[in-house]
Amino acid sequence: MDDTTARERLQCMLTDVERSIGVLSGDPVAVRDRSAADAGADLTDADRVEAMLAVASAHRRQVLDALKRLDEGTYGQCVDCGKPVPEGRLEARPEAARCVQCQSKLERRR
Questions:
Q1: 3-state secondary structure (DSSP) of residue 82
Q2: Do the Cβ atoms of 66 and 94 come closer than 8 Å?
Q3: CA distance 12 to 80
Q4: Cβ–Cβ under 8 Å, residues 7 and 92
């Protein structure tokens, strides 16, 4: 993928993820008289929103890091081994920082 296309896709991704973060971070619903079951459901919803916000924030960081690699001229190179990230991987995940092998190693360590 050429740098111009990558930058456009990453900018669109950044806009989308920032919009999602804004929605997820929105003001909580006004507190009303609720039963204990409603309070439990609210807690579950809050936990779910917190988890989605964490994922969106991590994705935002990945996109910003990819844009930085574009600016530095290292986009498309694995951040661990320096080998090229396969074109198909960048097409599917423009924010990808690692080649398939290095990404697999990272995931196995978790």
A1: coil
A2: yes
A3: 26
A4: no
Measure the CA angle with vertex 21, ends 25 and 13; round to 5°: 170
Return d(Cα 60, Cα 52) in angstroms, integer: 12
Against a cut of 0.85, is the pTM above it?
Answer: no
**pLDDT given for residue 26 in this prediction:** 80
> What residues contact residue 66 under an 8 Å CB cut-off, 6+ apart?
6, 10, 75, 94, 95, 96, 97
The DSSP code sequence of 86-106 is PHHHHHH-TT--S-HHHHHHH
Question: What pLDDT does 30 receive?
Answer: 40
Look at residue 29 in the predicted model and tell me its pLDDT.
Answer: 46
3-class state of residue 55 by DSSP: helix
Burial 81-106 (b: 16+ CB within 10 A, else e): eeeebeeebbeeebbbbbbeebbeee
